[in-house]
Fold this protein.
Amino acid sequence: MSFLQRLTTGLTASKIGTDRFGNTYYESRKTWLGYGRKRRFVLYAGEPDPTTVPSEWHCWLHHVTDAPLSEQKRYPWQREHQRNLTGTAQAYRPPGHDYSGARRAPTAGDYEAWTPGG
Amino acid sequence: MAKVTIDGIEVEVPNGATVLQACEAAGKEIPRFCYHERLSVAGNCRMCLVEVEKAPKPVASCAYPVADGMKVFTDSALVRNARRNVMEFLLINHPLDCPICDQGGECDLQDQATAYGGQGGRYREQKRAVKDKYLGPLVKTIMTRCIQCTRCVRFATEVAGVPELGATGRGEDMQIGTYVEKALTTELSGNLIDICPVGALTSRPYAFVSRPWELRKTDSVDVLDAVGAAIRVDTRGPEVLRILPRINEEVNEEWMADRGRFSFDGLKRRRLDRPWIRVEGKLKPASWQEAFAVVAERLKGIPGQRLGAVAGDLVDAESAFALRELMVGLGSANLDCRQDGAAIDVSRRDHYLFNSGIAGIDEADALLLIGTNPRKEAPVLNARIRKRWSSGALKVASIGPAGLDLTYKAEHLGEGPDALATLRDGGHAFAEVLKGAKRPMIVLGRAAVARPDGAAILAAAWALAESVGALTPEWHGFNMLHLFGGQVGALDAGFVPGEGGLDLAGMLGGGVDALWLLGADGFEPGLIPPGTFVIYQGHHGDRAAARADVILPGAAYTEKDGTYVNTEGRVQRGRMALHPPGEAREDWRIIRAAGAALDVSLAFDTLDALRARMAAANPVFGMVDGRIAEGCHDTAGPRLAEGAAPEATSFTLPITDYWQADAISRASETMAECSRIYNDATPKLAAE
């Protein structure tokens, strides 16, 4: 965060909290003109990437809840938040993709060709 | 004739016709489940109720004979009410699983419930549930859906001739089953699926595969036996999903044999989908250009009379004719389409046809089977024989292996050709039956002449036919029963040794340096002398492909427009339902392209031009779907060399395993499973 950003953020907004990935969440001190409510925003821990915001904070950020949800309360069916991996080595590739074995599911029109061995 | 008035329309129907038939003659639709034109009348579904004037109650029209002056109402308030109530009763125990039922969209109950049913059921109690029965690898049962119309029971008993199905229990507890759990031992089991009006009997390979409205339907003709049944090939995208029979009264009525119906999954296995050429002893994938280059390079150095060609059992007449033109253009007369070595005399067409016609069986009154088991060789034709036999007007005898189960009673006269001579000399009582018959039929199996003394047997059978008076200008009683759909077409295309040409035995005996196999898998490829240059053109890598030096991938019968001639000489057209896989092409195109590579000018560039040329060479090809039914005007028998006489050896049957008889069914997993189950010596008992 640059000095100017830190200065303006400190003057106009108050820090609400930090999520488990290190993203910091702020709320403006004043109601914004024409917006009708206080502005909520996030300063990312690393590269700016909106998909790193976990659902608890996403809820708060979009004014769904007044206060951020607890990050401690977990249900057994909840999976850990994962950011969008598109463009990285861990990106999802369909089963027929060369990088994931190149073995697609059988489909219409598939046939077994004869080869001299078999 | 009886005059009947149906809803004010006066029709005349024969005495003894049923009210339902009279209504159909008047163009009135009568809903029905148990009634089927080709089965006996059961009258147990009660859906066909109509009102007859002066009758106290609605009557079941399928089982009610007409009387002169009868007045019938098919759309009165009484009739509508009766049908609605019958439908409500039928639906009491019918599950409401149409969305997951394979019959959905082509279900009689669904359609008729929409047309004749009420608004909804009033039944609130528990529905009946029935345990599913095992009927073999082809027919899947969901017996809860059964409405006890007993069509399947009557079909199995009357048409298929295997009284293995029946009903146990009464009323609500009535169940259709095989008493002792076993696979139905019939080659016509697929027809059970067609005649079942609901989804109780459905196709096992087609289970949960598709809906009828998703399919593209192509009318074609079955080539896996020589009957040439009319079929409909149902495809979705690039695959065949099912094959159904079409109605053709002259040939298959509405039945179809299991091998033709269920072997289509073989069209997706072991396919030749690219050209291969042998390089340093190993087959290597190649392009069409490379393959033709090799063919041209090798064949150009060989003189015409050292070239040979053999056509297989499933070839279309076009490709056989085209290959013959190519071979003639190359100067070769070594052609043969008789892979089994059958001594067929092609000098006259009636020497190798089923001359009485398949429909002619309905007129026959005596029938002699020689060296053939039509149940395995042509199940639909066998059902026709059985139908005639059941009417009591036909006496059947057989010469060949003893103990055949033909589904009808046949007197066994002997195992070998000596029985023919005995019969001709009147040494057996059946000779009198044949002589006394107005329409006697002699059915000679193709395999009976596929032996060294075949020509003598052919002549002996012809002579027998002549001596019993089967060869008259009105009736031709000499019949040859072929095995596969491409055999007669190749004979008609003239794919036999020309002047001075070698037959298959001569070619395999070292008479040729290069051999073109057109789908020829019917003989042991090991018999081809080493060093012979072999071109295999076909659709399946079955027996001969591995021996080939060049493989040219062709199209199977569902993948090309082709002409096929059935055993009675009926020229029929099969139509392309889908494209051949990969690089494979239609066979006549391959031959045309090979002609260009070999600098042989072939006088056809299009299929129409080829067909016109075929019709010019042999006029029968110009008469599609037709057949000249004529008697025998010249009783001169087939040519026979001096001193040739039948040997004493017994006849053997060509098809030992019905489910694995051709290249397509040998590649089919469904057929392999059938073969496993039906050839298992120990009968399957109910699961312990």
Notes: Residues 3-72 of chain A form one domain. The mean pLDDT of chain A is 90. The longest strand of chain A covers residues 24-31.
